[in-house]
Structure formats: C-alpha cells, structure tokens
Amino acid sequence: MPHSGKLSMIGGLTHNPKSSLPQRYGLGKSSPGILLDTSHAVATTSNTSVTLWRLCTGECRKRHIRPFFESSCARLCVTEQASGVKMRTREVWRIERAGSLHRLARQAESLPKPGPGEARIAVKAVGLNFADLFACLGLYSATPAGPFVPGLEFAGVVEALGPPAAGGMAHCGPRPGDRVIGLTRFGAYATALNLDLRYLTPIPPAWSFAEAAAFPVQALTAWYALVELGALAPGDGVLVHSAAGGVGLNALAIRAAGGARVVATVGRPAKLDFLVERCGLAPGQVIVRDRRVFGRQLDRALAALDLDGFDLVLDAVAGPFFR
Description:
Blueprint: E1 8-11, E2 23-26, H1 40-44, H2 52-56, E3 77-78, E4 88-95, E5 104-111, E6 118-128, H3 130-137, E7 153-161, E8 171-172, E9 179-183, E10 192-196, E11 200-202, H4 209-213, H5 216-229, E12 237-240, H6 246-257, E13 261-266, H7 269-279, E14 286-288, H8 294-304, E15 312-315
Helix pairs in contact: 5-6
C-alpha cells in the first residue's frame, strides 16, 4: 500500500469493533444496574485543546481552541461557597477488587462538601464503554489497586460549589442548576460526586443527559489520536477503521471539520449504509472489510478519492489487515 511519507499508525486507542458502539444508560430508580466506560484518553488528554462538541457539530474550524475542560468565562463569575452546603448521602457502584463483575455492589455512603475549586454534581447519566469492563476485570493498566468506583464520564446538574481554589479567585464557570458534562479518573458510577471545576463543561442545549454522558471519552480519544498524535492537516488522507463505532464516528466528524479526506472501514454492509446516510460519505469511501481482498478494496477506495496513500491510520482493528 503506497503512502505519502508521513504515514502515522495510531493504534491501541480504540477497541474491538464489536464492543465500540456507544451505549447509554440513565442513572435513577428505574435503572439500578449500571456498568462500564472507556480508556487510554482519560489518562492522557486532560490538557487536550478543543471544545469538542462544537468542533464535532461543525461549529468550529480552528485547529487550536480553548482547552476542553476550561469552560468559557463569558458567563458570570460565581462566588457561592460551600459554607452552607451540607453533607449528602449518595449511592455508588463499588468493586472491592478487580477481577470479576460479581464483586460490583451498590452501596450507600456519605459525600462530603465540595472542596476548594470543586462542584458537587447530581449525576443523571454515565457513559458505558469498553474500558470500564476491562477495569472491573483487572485487564486495564490504569485500574486502581483495591476498592474503586468505576466510571470515567457522566452528565448531571450542579448542586453546589465549594470555596474558591487557592489564590482566592472567584468561580468562573458552572453555577448551581447548570447542566454539565464531567470527566473523572474513575468514580462516575454514583448518584452524586464532587469534581474539580476544570473537568466540567456545559451540556449543549439540544443534548440529553444520556447523549452528553456518552460523548467525552470517545470524542477525546478520537481528537487525541488524530490531532494531538497524528497532526491532522487539511487534505490529509485518513483511514478510519471501525468507523461506525463511537470513536470512529467522532473521528469522521473531526476529519470533516479539519478538511481531511477519509476512507472508512466497517464490518457489515448495514454499517456502510449507516455511514452513507448519517455521515454523508460516498459508498466508494466505505469498505466492508474482507481480509481476503482487503488490499484491493483499499486500492479502489484510494483511487476513488484520487489519493496515492494515507497520511494517518486510526486503527481500532489491528492485526491481520496490516500484515
């Protein structure tokens, strides 16, 4: 397979295509059982520079934007402190030791007041992704030792604010009653939690809590892979494996905003139809993978786009297709 000389292989950031489709579950009385979120990007992308929901809906075209978790200060600065905030009882899903899902149990416990620079959020929905399953099974390198609460992303409503962080600055960002997306280093499978304000961002008005909770980890994974690692540029040729999955769909949106040309691969014909209808791709841009003729499939797709190779490959399949 020819390439332009700057080919970047971006692998290991996404997951098995059978497991990568986003699933969303609300948190409440009608849904007592909630499992599992995502992976590598959370440990590495806290400084990723993009307001991703804006970019992925085509509202933003800049390569370098405000950090995702630093909410715009165009809203009013808030000075409410936690002096009048009482402790709260919450429920969590805690696993005493990784290795088996049977160890995951629902528990009630007290949640302290939010600390300096923190907000307390009533959780309405959590993301359910492949890395949570791996964490609970002990197969994820970042799994905490000993007991932990799974969950890396959530959406909810700000209940209270802690005092200003060190330096005495007033809060600039979410206020009590605001709907927010949050990203955590575990701990999201709870009815409420305290989180640093820097890891919260407003939910777009048209989004439900479930849509918001399922967004950040997959979107940040795609952004980190294509932009931070791959240095995506206008006109680049990009191959996106497992393009109908959660990370893949975000990658397609990011490459469209960045002006790149894409070939997408999927595992079933129904997913080809989905990408043509949902993402506006031409049928010739989408490959239903067949390992027996995969090289020829790539050649046809490259020719359809007048490309002589790929500058970036986002690989959620790995293995035999590159041997």
